[in-house]
Prior knowledge:
alpha+beta, Jelly Rolls, Arc Repressor Mutant, subunit A, 2 domains, 7-stranded antiparallel beta sheet, 3-stranded antiparallel beta sheet, 12 helices, globular
Amino acid sequence: MLAGMRADTVPTTRGHGAWEVAVPAGGRAIPGVTMAGFRDRSGGTFEERVPPGPAIAIVIDCAPGSLEPLGSGAIEGGIVSGISPAATRMAGRAVDCVELQVDPLAAPGLLGVPPAELNGAPLDLAEVWGRDAGRLRARLIEARSWDDRFALVREAFTRHRRSSFRIDPEVADAWRRIVAGHGRVPIGDLPGRYGWSRTTFWNRFKSQIGVTPKRAATIVRFDRALRRLGTAASVAEVAAEIGYSDQSHLHREVLKFTGRTPGAIASDPLWTVDSMAWTPARTA
């Protein structure tokens, strides 16, 4: 354990083939953040497109060289991907990393920037946090247990600077409703709840969250479908359960966002372990 520190939770570790997945008990170690650790003992390689999702993803490589955003330089602190990233591919080999999923509403306080500034091409965490990101990554590389790694991340986020940026309560409420409704929310009814015009609501939501309300609903629904495809559910079951008009609709959306078919996602161990880590948090 870290000197003078102990983690508040004992990590839960599960395996799937050569993959090891660890999560803090209860899933959350920091308000607004879920964490998981991933380790692939097979030494295998992968290459995947970074998909959109209802959280800002931060992936910190704990074994130098195991993760690399293609077309970019080496990471110094960690890879930060907004909720609607530009089409970017990630390569990995013998992955050993900690991943954080940051609620966009928590991003200004934890990362120092509004979520709208994190869309587009993934960033190095060092571009957001400066030298603090490199220091955290160096300590994570030295740490050997998931308990120590989760404690280091919690410590870094607890002492990091705050941002003066504030998200409107109305925008925050709309975001929570979209997430709680798994993207199946009558978007047209939301402006009236806040006494705003459609244009005002649309503009404020997009400027603060980074996407339009309609795009946000699409991303939330897609993310749920992606996690379900990583379980034993069939493509037809997922399409019906999550509200796609039919299998073809789901097929088109998965292909658009990942470059792969639903069947390929469902049979890939990488997406199975991803679902193991995040599905409980998404459905909580």
